[in-house]
Amino acid sequence: MRTYRVASRAAVAALVTMALAACSGTIGAVTESGSPGAWMPSAPPSASASVPTVNPSAQPSGSSTGITDPLARFYQQHLVWSSCSGDFQCAKLTVPVDYAAPNGDTTKVSIIRLRSADASKRIGSLVINPGGPGGSGVDFARAARAIYSQAILDQYTIVGFDPRGVASSDPVQCLNDPQTDRFIAADGTPDTPAEILQLQALGKLFAESCKARSPKLFAHVDTRSVARDLDVLRAALGESKLNYFGASYGTYLGATYADLFPTKVGRMVLDGAIDPTLTNVEITHQQLKGFEVAIARFIADCNKQQSCPLPGGVEAGKAKLARLFATLDQAPLKTGDPKRSLNEALAENAVLSYLYFPESDYGQLRDGLSAAFNGDGSVLLDMLDQRISRDSSGHYTDNSNAMLYAVNALDRPDRPTVTQWQTYADQWAKEDPLFGRFFAWGNIPFDYWNAPATNSPHEIHAPGSPPILVVGTTYDPATPYPWAQGLAKQLSRGVLLTRVGDGHTAYGMGSTCADDAIDRFLTTGVTPPVGTVCH
To answer: Choosing a second label site near 83 at 20 to 30 A (CA), which of 23, 92, 188, 405?
Structure first.
């Protein structure tokens, strides 16, 4: 349905991986990508390896006497690596389901690594997270050669992981495939009490199915738990400090880690940052404003192209889109699939999901809209399926949609009722008639989440950490630029790097200035000068 998640690079990373060989998408949310970089084989790994036992002094922040006994077995575990995916190696990390009860149930976290290409220059491990919540870090790492510069690949062993509950890490399950189809296609701008009741029923079904199908992990996939897993991973890798690159939601995970373990932070880059002081309602509202700017910039760009389905300027383009959505609300378009027509909800999802990366997305979006205006809904529907990881058989190939709601519900306590969402929908529709109602109604499942939040919005200062590089892009729709400004100001040693431009995140998005500054920080520890602005 429609909470526009802080998007993940996972889906495009997976596509890049397939391209080298030859999304993590979510309901109402879209994905992010890396851009191609230099490619060179890494040093050949051995078929199997393990790391030495970690010194017990590598304990969680707040302990002055070493690791407490219940956690020692996790911090001192050996990772047994085996060959997978060519020259990559894979392993499993064991962590407690509930850190408050470490002697209870455990869960497995999937890990993958690509060894540094030049052993003589190796700095250590760089743990990466693509965002989401729900993006596969394993898929992201598999695309490392297409995402990171050769300098990073030479000097770091790239380590990706699927956070607890994600993909190959004991995945949380919620709706089945037909139910997910109905959930995504449900009317996101309800006009009648019956349509509101349908949204409520689907939201309740979604939340209840997550608890029923994943009772062990349902209440323990919050970001604080994943951050604690990160520290166990750091120790299992034999690293005294965590070097980390987080994109989008991955910045919130990185900032949470710094909040919990400031003295264990190494070189940390937070690209496409989230402000940790925001509630779920504030995040949704500010993303709405970000996408309002993004659609205007898309239409302006469209008007510069030879063939534009939205001619006549920004306001005329918005009006034409609004008429299309209103028509689809009453008369969905045929798509070639007799079971799936293109209705308003699917069309709005598709349009929004192709505003993240102008270079690759804008042309496809123009084509999809042109087809829709000519009565063919198949192009937009196929585009959306790529972003929500739905294959041609109707199977959803990852669980990113489930994790989107599960993590956000646990990370922040605000869970407005349907009456409150009605109020927000009415207010936001006045601000943005095109998408205001759609954004508001996408949060219904939170009201039915039967597990308490484990965190609440607050400033993160991370006193005692080294410099942390926070990166923001001025026209980023999913993580608006003010979020990066806010996080950089809160961190005791935050340094803000600004990229002027469109699209989600900065690294690999066409700015040599930004890429070089990030690479320099990761390889030397030197931050860009205060106030650095890249184009």
So the answer is: 23
Give me the active site residues, please: 248, 476, 504
Q: What does the pLDDT average to over 153-181?
A: 97
Amino acid at 334: K
| Domain spanning 1-535: CATH superfamily | Alpha/Beta hydrolase fold, catalytic domain (3.40.50.1820)
Query: How big is the CA angle at 222 (ends 263 and 443), to the nearest 5 degrees?
Result: 135
Query: The pTM is what?
Result: 0.89
Helix runs in 89-149, H state only? 137-142, 144-147
Strand partners, 31: 8
The full DSSP string for 18-61 is HHHH----BTTB-B---------PPPPPPSEEEPPPPPTTSPPT
Residues 72-102: pLDDT tens digits? 999 999 999 999 989 999 999 999 999 999 9
Distance CA 358, CA 504 (A): 9
In 119-237 the beta strands, taken as DSSP E runs, fall at 124-129, 156-162
Residue 56 pLDDT level (bands cut at 50, 70, 90)? very low
Domain coordinates of the chain in residue numbers? 1-535
CB atoms within 10 A of CB 414: 17
Q: How many CA atoms lie within 13 A of 412 on its CB side?
A: 22
Residues 6+ apart with CB under 8 A from 47: 82, 83
Backbone angles phi, psi at 41, to 5 degrees: -60, 145
Encode pLDDT of 324-353 as tens digits.
999 999 999 999 999 999 999 999 999 999
Please return the burial class of 524, using the count of CB atoms within 10 Å of its CB with bins 0-12, 13-18 and 19+. exposed
CB 76 within 8 A of CB 58: no
pLDDT of residue 315 exceeding 70, the answer is yes
pLDDT at 22 over 90: no
